[in-house]
User: What shape does this take?
Amino acid sequence: MNKVFLIDIGNSSIDVGVGSKRGVRFLFKLSASEDSFPWLQEKLGDRGENSYLIFSSVVPSLSKSLRFFLKKNFLILECGKEVQIPIRNLYYKKKEVGQDRLLNCFAARQLYEKTRVVVDLGTALTFDFISEAGEYLGGLIVPGASLSRKALLQRAALLPKEVRFRPPKNLIAKTTAGCINAGIYFGYSLMIKGVLDYYRRKLKNDFVSLGCGGDIRYISLKLSSLDYLEPYLSLKGLYLLAKYRNII
Assistant: This one.
């Protein structure tokens, strides 16, 4: 059975998966650091000259590290270089848009045909909009939940040094840590809902919205008005791209 390894390099973490004719399987998550690649090289081992690895990256230095450590183990395909994502890009400066955003939109349309908005909550919160014809229109970028929390705790002397994310029981919290946690949970959930509701009114039409990213689990599906959650959408996109290229 043909297998292809899938790697999504983000600003904060690296997701690793494997795809075959049976589907895609998440393997593990690593820190987005050059130190992760020697371990990854040993973990994946030498798969032979006909083994493929397809990856997407938003960190150029880590893309180079991946190639350096794994070039002897795999035939490497990078989104935007050896393989192009089959979606029409209507960005004014097409090279400015991250391959991860194009990949997510491609995957979302393959999984849910009526998807018009992809919401990715990671280091940044991004909203990516897709036309009815499946074209990439552009979007919005906001600092992500973890980044906002970290910046707040670092800059405010009297706040606790660490606050854990967890779904709050009430809107009004009774501790400072609880207030920060609830603020992020309700704030980001309702921000997403506000953008989706505004776009729905603008289109005067209903559509499918999809949430993804490492921190998407920290918001409320109900409050945000998102239709579906796909935390590992990028890995699924890489898998679908491999199928599109007949690698699997």
User: Anything to note?
Assistant: The two ends are 9 Å apart (CA to CA). The first helix runs from residue 36 to 44. The mean pLDDT is 93.
